[in-house]
Amino acid sequence: MAKHLNEQYLLRLYVNGRTARSRMAEQNLRSYLNQHLRESFDLEVVDVQKDVEEIQKNNLLGTPTLIKFSPKPVSRVVGDMSDTFVLASVVGSEPQK
């Protein structure tokens, strides 16, 4: 379960189009969040092809990129969101072994 149990998580997943990699990252992330945070998260998926300004605004070096804006501190991870230990370090929850 999440460390910040009573807090709403604000998360944004940046993808580059609707590629297989982007869809897989979103699917992996949603699965993880539904299991570990349940209803206490707000996930927005942003396609950087449609919103190019987000690349510079958030210093994106690659996609897919997940940024956790709250609770603080802000943190990020780049990749297909399949590594539950990395996701746990970003959202502050315990991964299943």
Provide the fold topology.
Layout: E1 9-15, H1 20-36, E2 41-47, H2 53-57, E3 65-70, E4 75-78, H3 84-91
Keywords for this entry:
97 residues; four-stranded mixed β-sheet; alpha+beta; 4 strands
Tell me what you see in this structure.
It contains three helices and four strands. The chain has helices at residues 20-36, 53-57, 84-91; strands at 9-15, 41-47, 65-70, 75-78. 23% of the residues are buried.
Order of helices and strands: EHEHEEH
**Low-confidence residue ranges:** none
Mean pLDDT across the residues is 89
| Alpha carbon gap, first and last residue | 14 Å
State the total count of DSSP E strands: 4
Percent of sequence in beta strands = 15-25%
Helix content: 25-40%
Biggest β-sheet, characterized?
A: 4 strands, mixed
Q: Compute the gyration radius: what is it? A: 13 Å
Count of helical regions: 3
Lateral arrangement of strands in the main beta sheet: 2-1-3-4
Shape: globular
Overall SS class: alpha+beta
What does the oligomeric state look like here? single chain
Summarize the structure.
The protein is α+β, with helices and mostly antiparallel strands.
